[in-house]
Structures are given as structure tokens and as C-alpha cells.
């Protein structure tokens, strides 16, 4: 009888724990060892900010599994506080240091799965080692932040990505005064800039002092409080500093073992999650994957890909040749009252990849407008101007954003087009959606433009056209695009003669619906007319008041 296969997994949280459980479900006979440096396995890293803020009150809720529960359920040999210090590819073993007693031993493998994740970036700035400057990755990090926050009045959060925004919200929730510093001129760097505007507004409306376009150059200490000196010359002082400027793949082990690394030191893997050594697989935040839409190499530190890749690595290690399809970066974050979500390519990433695209904006309500509680959402849909294939989407709103982004994510993966979105058969009752769901609406708007039923203009390219406001006089008085001419939609058929036929016209209304009607009327009367996509609301996202 052949020896049971020995699978060793380095890292026992998202990707690692999933790989271990999947491997066991596929093989009762395999020897499966999980080596985890930290004191916990399979904890809910995504929940950490919410325990700091108090929304997840019970710390134990974050511990999804323990070594004991994993042994009982899956017969896994899980060793915490066990750090892998070297991979010996020649003799197929790893060196393990037991952090409790400093002893080192070798553990042999037939197949090795690396799920070592990514570490928060800590740039070598003067004063960075101050004991009140924290990063958040593990439960012990969370405990340290929580206990510092218990005694704090104010905090500085550095970095306006997912974790920075979640921490800003949670520290505000605890009543701390929060200043958020972001190097770029927008929060949430993966979003296109205009879509990040409402997020910045929400932060400010909830009392976060937001400093965009500035960066920390050094830290110092003032009576025990860390002080940050910014590039602008400004100085900020607080009881707590959270550093959340991104993560770096943790690949030292792999590098020292001579495995091929790519961009930003991430591990190169094939679609079977196999590294340059066929007996070593790697998954999660430490690997480069392929962007599903642009085909570019992508570093996407999210829990969904880590879990799915962990499953695929285990399957391949056990001889089932499944493949990873690539990452769409589908993600969502709550920022106070807002849900902010994206999937697929952004306008920025399409431009970078040199891919032609078209786009539309719309601002539908999440369920029937006549049913109490309808909340508006802003959708940006990116698609191919040639065949209508859906390339990406970003949505900012409240309830219902999660559902729409997931439908669009599925559409991208199935390579559907905007014509398919028109036809999607989605659940409707007034509490949940509309007979023309926001997804159908996005399809209608995009498909109308592709079919030539209406030409559209965008708020970042209005030059040279006559701007025609077709809203009411009251709406016009409350705010308008400079230089606009007002002809309310209901007067347009009668007053069309006031408009020039020898100049392009861009019609606009509040969100693009009346503008569309206006464009249809004028187009059929022989005018050179376009509708401003998403109307004045989108204009304001590009040009805040
Ligand atoms: P991890 O889950 O980080 O696991 C890696 C493990 O490997 C670590 O525990 C580490 O100790 C161990 N390790 C590393 N080197 C060694 C070694 N040499 N020996 C032994 N062990 C080692 N993603 C989302 O999609 N949605 C969210 O809402 C979300 N929120 C997040 C909030 C926070 C605060 C954080 C930190 C992350 C969040 N993420 C979120 C990201 C998500 O948690 C990661 O993408 C995911 O955990 C990556 O899985 P992984 O297995 O690659 O790495």
C-alpha cells in the first residue's frame, strides 16, 4: 500500500484554512499539517475593525475555528505559534520554529501550499516605531488598538483604502475625533475619482477631518502622543495613529527558496495556483493573479479570491486539475451610511490597459420610489463600445448596492453584454426592487446609446456644446451648469425653434431621464443633440459645488 500523501500548509487563516478543509474532504487518508505563526487560526480578519468599534461586541465571535475544532471535525494537525523559517525544495521539507520554546524541526511534505498573506506596509519614516502607531492584521493587533482606543480622545488614520475607512468609521463610532490623511486626491483608490466624491462627503458629514493630497513625512513624540508631520508642513497630534497605507505580499520564504516572484514581490502562479515549483502551490494575498477583464497581472488582497484559490490549490495538490479563472476585484465596504462597491475594471484600469470602453451613469432608487424608504444609488457602468460586453461597475448608495454589484459581477464573469442586462429577469416587489430594476435600467441606458437611439455626453467633456437644462425653473435656480439655457422639458416641443441647428447641444436634467426624452425629441427634429449621462447629479460628482 502506498504511503498517504503529506500536505503541509503554511498560514492557517483565509486561504490556508480553506485549503486544509478542502483537502480533507477530498482525501480521508492524506496527512494534513497546518503551520501558523500566530496564536489563532481561521479568525475573521474582516471583522476586526468592528470589534474595535464595538459593533461586534463578543471577541470570541471572531474566532471561527480553533486547532481543536479543526482536529475534531477535519482531522487536521494544526500547529499555532509555529513559524516556517525555510523551504528545502531539494529534500521537500520545511523548517519550523516553535515560538513557545524556540525549538526548530523539519516537517516533510509531498505538496506544500503557501498561504502566507500580506503584511501591512510600514515605511521607514523617522519615528515610525512610536508605541502608539498601529497597523491592523491580526487579533493581537486588534487587542492593542482597542486597548489604546479605550483611553484615547483622538486618532489619526493614515491611508484612505478599505481598512483605513473602516477604522475611521469605527473610531468615530467610539466617539474619538478622527483625522484621515490620504496621499491621493481621493479616498478608495480603486474607485474612479468621481465615484469616490460621495464617500469623501460621507466621511466629512460624519465628523471625519479628511485631508486629501497630503502625506506623512515623519513622526515624533509630544508628551507620549505621536505627532505626524505632513508634506504640506501641517502637524497633527493624537493619542492613536492607525497606519493603513496598503499591504505587501509576505513572500520572503518563497523568495529565499528561489520561487519565481513578480510585481511587488508577489508569487507567480499558474491557473492551478502552482508556483514555479510544481510541488508548491500558493494562494491568497501573496500571489499575483490575472485580472479577469484586462488580462493584466493583478494583486488583489481580498478574502473571496483567497478562499476560492485555497480550494483550488488543495484540489490540484490531490490530483484534480481545477483552474482559477482570474480575479474581478469584486468588493464592497460600508462607510457610515454608504455602501461602496465595485467589480471588474475601472475607467482607470481600462485606460492603463489601453482597452476601449464606453460608460454610462445612472442614479436609480434601490426599490420602487413610491414605497417608503427608497434610497438612491449612483451606478457607473463600463462596457465595450463595440459589442456591449460588460467590463466593470462601481456603485455608491445604501441598501441594495450589494445585490446589484453581485449581479453585475456575475454578468462580467459570464461575459454578458449590456443587451443581456436589458433582458435580466430579476425579482421584484416594491420593497425590493422596481419593475425596471436598476440593472435593467443600466442595460437600457447603455444599449440605447450603442443602438444610436440617443447619443450621450459626459460631464468631463462638455466643451463647445450648448448646454440645455430641461429641468424646472426651481431646479435650475437651485444649481445649474454655468452657461446653460433653460427650457423645461414640458415646453420643449413648443420652444424647440429657439435652439440652434448649427451647434451641438447637450441636454441635461437631474439624473438623465428627462434629458433622454429631450434628446429623443430634438434628435427627431434634426438637432445635433446628446444627453448628459447621469444628469446634473453626475456633473456634481465631477465638479463639486
Ligand atoms: P491571511 O488570511 O492573512 O493568512 C496568512 C497567515 O499566514 C497569517 O495568519 C500569518 O500569520 C501566516 N504566516 C505568514 N507567514 C508565515 C510563516 N512563515 N509561517 C507560519 N505562518 C505564516 N477582504 C475582503 O474581501 N473583505 C473584507 O471586508 C476584508 N476586510 C479586512 C479587514 C482587515 C482588518 C484585514 C486585515 C483584511 C481584510 N480583508 C478583507 C482581506 C482578507 O482578510 C485577506 O484578503 C485574506 O485574509 C487573505 O488570505 P490569506 O490566506 O492570503 O492571508
**Small molecules bound in the structure, each named once:** flavin-adenine dinucleotide
Count of helical regions: 16
Structural class of the secondary structure composition?
alpha/beta
Helix fraction, binned, reads 25-40%
Strand content: 15-25%
Largest sheet: 5 strands, parallel
Extended strand count: 31
Q: Which blocks of ≥5 consecutive residues have pLDDT under 50? A: none
* Radius of gyration, taken over Cα atoms and rounded to an integer in Å: 27 Å
Mean of pLDDT: 97
Q: How would you describe what is shown here?
A:
This protein is globular. Helix 5 (162-173) links the parallel strand 10 (154-158) and strand 11. Helix 1 packs parallel to helix 8 (303-317). The chain is built from 16 helices and 31 strands. It is α/β, with parallel strands linked by helices. The longest helix is centred in the middle third of the chain and has 15 residues, at 303-317. The strands form eight sheets. Strands 3-2-1-7-19 form a five-stranded parallel sheet. It is 28% helix and 25% strand. Flavin-adenine dinucleotide binds at residues 10-11, 13-16, 35-38, 45-46, 48-49, 83-84, 115-117, 136-137, 163, 250, 253, 284-286, 301-304, 306.
What descriptors fit this protein?
single chain; 545 residues; alpha/beta; 16 helices; 31 strands; binds flavin-adenine dinucleotide
Characterize this entry briefly:
With 545 residues, the protein is an alpha/beta fold. Strand 14 (225-230) and strand 15 form a beta hairpin.
Amino acid at each position: 500500500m502506498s504511503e498517504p500523501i503529506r500536505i503541509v500548509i503554511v498560514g492557517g487563516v483565509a486561504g490556508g484554512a480553506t485549503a486544509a478543509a478542502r483537502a480533507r474532504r477530498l482525501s480521508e487518508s492524506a496527512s494534513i499539517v497546518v503551520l501558523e505563526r500566530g496564536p489563532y487560526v481561521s479568525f475573521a480578519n474582516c471583522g476586526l475593525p468592528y470589534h474595535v468599534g464595538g459593533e461586534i461586541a463578543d471577541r470570541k465571535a471572531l474566532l471561527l475555528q480553533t486547532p481543536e475544532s479543526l482536529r475534531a471535525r477535519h482531522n487536521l494537525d494544526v500547529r499555532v505559534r509555529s513559524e516556517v523559517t525555510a523551504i528545502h525544495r531539494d529534500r521537500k521539507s520545511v523548517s519550523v520554529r516553535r515560538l513557545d520554546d524556540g525549538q526548530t524541526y523539519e516537517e516533510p511534505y509531498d505538496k506544500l501550499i503557501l498561504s502566507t498573506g500580506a503584511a501591512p506596509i510600514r515605511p521607514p519614516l523617522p519615528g515610525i516605531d512610536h508605541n502608539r502607531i498601529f497597523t491592523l492584521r491580526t487579533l493581537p493587533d486588534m487587542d492593542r488598538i482597542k486597548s489604546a482606543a479605550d483611553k484615547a480622545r483622538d486618532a489619526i488614520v493614515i491611508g484612505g483604502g478599505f481598512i483605513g475607512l473602516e477604522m475611521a468609521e469605527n473610531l468615530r463610532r467610539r466617539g474619538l475625533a478622527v483625522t484621515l490623511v490620504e496621499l491621493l486626491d481621493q479616498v478608495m483608490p480603486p474607485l474612479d475619482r468621481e465615484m469616490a466624491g460621495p464617500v469623501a462627503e460621507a466621511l466629512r458629514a460624519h465628523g471625519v477631518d479628511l485631508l486629501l493630497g497630503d502625506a506623512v513625512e515623519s513622526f515624533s513624540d509630544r508628551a507620549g502622543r505621536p505627532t505626524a508631520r505632513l508634506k504640506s508642513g501641517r502637524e497633527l497630534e493624537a493619542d492613536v495613529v492607525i497606519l493603513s497605507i496598503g499591504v505587501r505580499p509576505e513572500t520572503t520564504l518563497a523568495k529565499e527558496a528561489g520561487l519565481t516572484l513578480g510585481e511587488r514581490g508577489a508569487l507567480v502562479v499558474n491557473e492551478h495556483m502552482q508556483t514555479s515549483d510544481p510541488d508548491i502551490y500558493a494562494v491568497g494575498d501573496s500571489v499575483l493573479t490575472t485580472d479577469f477583464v484586462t488580462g493584466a497581472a493583478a494583486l488583489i488582497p481580498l478574502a473571496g479570491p483567497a478562499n476560492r484559490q485555497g480550494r483550488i490549490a488543495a484540489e490540484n495538490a490531490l490530483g484534480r486539475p481545477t483552474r482559477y479563472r482570474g480575479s474581478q476585484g469584486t468588493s464592497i465596504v460600508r462607510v457610515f451610511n454608504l455602501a461602496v462597491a465595485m467589480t471588474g475594471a475601472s475607467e482607470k484600469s481600462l485606460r492603463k490597459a489601453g482597452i476601449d470602453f464606453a460608460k454610462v451613469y445612472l442614479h436609480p432608487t434601490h426599490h420602487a420610489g413610491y414605497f417608503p424608504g427608497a434610497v438612491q444609488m449612483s451606478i457607473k457602468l463600463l462596457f465595450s463600445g463595440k459589442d456591449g460586453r460588460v467590463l466593470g461597475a462601481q456603485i455608491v448608495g445604501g441598501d441594495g448596492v450589494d445585490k446589484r454589484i453581485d449581479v453585475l459581477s456575475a454578468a462580467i464573469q459570464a461575459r454578458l453584454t449590456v443587451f443581456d442586462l436589458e433582458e435580466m429577469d430579476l425579482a421584484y416587489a416594491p420593497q425590493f426592487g422596481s419593475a425596471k430594476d436598476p440593472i435593467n435600467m443600466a442595460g437600457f441606458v447603455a444599449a440605447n446609446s450603442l443602438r444610436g437611439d440617443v447619443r450621450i455626453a459626459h460631464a468631463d467633456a462638455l466643451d463647445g456644446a450648448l448646454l440645455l437644462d430641461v429641468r424646472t425653473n426651481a431646479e435650475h435656480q437651485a444649481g445649474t451648469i454655468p452657461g446653460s439655457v433653460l427650457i423645461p422639458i414640458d415646453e420643449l416641443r413648443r420652444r424647440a425653434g429657439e435652439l440652434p441647428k448649427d451647434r451641438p447641444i447637450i441636454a441635461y436634467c437631474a439624473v438623465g431621464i428627462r434629458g433622454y426624452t429631450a434628446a429623443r425629441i430634438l434628435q427627431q427634429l434634426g438637432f445635433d443633440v446628446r444627453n448628459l449621462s447621469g444628469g446634473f447629479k453626475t456633473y456634481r460628482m465631477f465638479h463639486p459645488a
